[in-house]
Design brief:
By secondary structure, this protein is an alpha+beta fold. It has three helices and seven strands; from the N terminus they run H-E-E-E-E-E-E-E-H-H. It has helices at residues 10-14, 127-137, 184-192; strands at residues 16-18, 29-37, 55-64, 68-82, 89-103, 117-118, 123-125.
Length: 193
């Protein structure tokens, strides 16, 4: 996927690395590390995200290969969100693996450009790669703990406070049959006989 299609964010500008010293020098490499503030949370997206302004640390190796610049390393961050059952705050430490080949534009056929990540003006833009890698590591249904009982589906009551909390509901379609199954009436009739 071309990085042109991804909207620009602060990660796109702060995680650009100049690779001019590696271009055309197959086998040469350079280690880079950078800690950047997380951009604003994206509304309506994944449940767990890095809070705006918190640190995202990127440590990668840039390596020159025949086809382009190969990038491998990690992005680490602390994600926050809500428990998917009780809505309590939860945290998740992530260390996302980064692994991408930024192709030299002249090495990519026109029909393959849409599926390739291209080197742009001798720069490697790790913003989209870091954003996607962290999103892939994020819990999609985070829990505060494995046995979290959650909230009552009818009234929102915290089930942890009273595990026996429940509601009596009679389906309107069967309301007329409710009296047929009362066990007290037949017992009373037997006692009278």
């Amino acid at each position: 996927m071309s990085s042109d299609a991804i909207p620009t964010s602060s990660l796109d500008t702060s995680l650009r690395f100049d690779a001019v010293d590696l271009v055309g020098r197959t086998g040469s490499h350079r280690h880079v590390e950078r800690t950047v503030p997380a951009p604003a949370r994206e509304a309506g997206s994944i449940a767990m995200q890095v809070p705006e302004g918190d640190d995202i640390t990127v440590a990668v190796e840039l390596e020159s290969v025949v086809e382009g610049i190969y990038v491998h390393g990690t992005a680490t961050a602390l994600l926050t969100g809500e428990c998917s059952r009780c809505l309590d705050p939860v945290e998740q430490d992530v260390s996302a693996r980064l692994d991408e080949l930024f192709m030299f534009p002249e090495k990519v056929k026109a029909e393959d450009r849409e599926d390739s990540v291209l080197l742009e003006a001798d720069e490697v833009n790790l913003g989209p790669l870091v954003r996607d890698a962290i999103a892939m590591e994020a819990e999609d249904r985070p829990l505060c703990r494995e046995d979290c009982p959650g909230l009552c589906g009818h009234c929102g009551f915290r089930m942890e406070e009273d595990p026996s909390h429940h509601h009596e509901f009679v389906d309107d379609r069967f309301a007329a049959l409710k009296g047929l199954f009362d066990t007290e009436e037949p017992a009373q009739k037997d006692e009278q006989n």
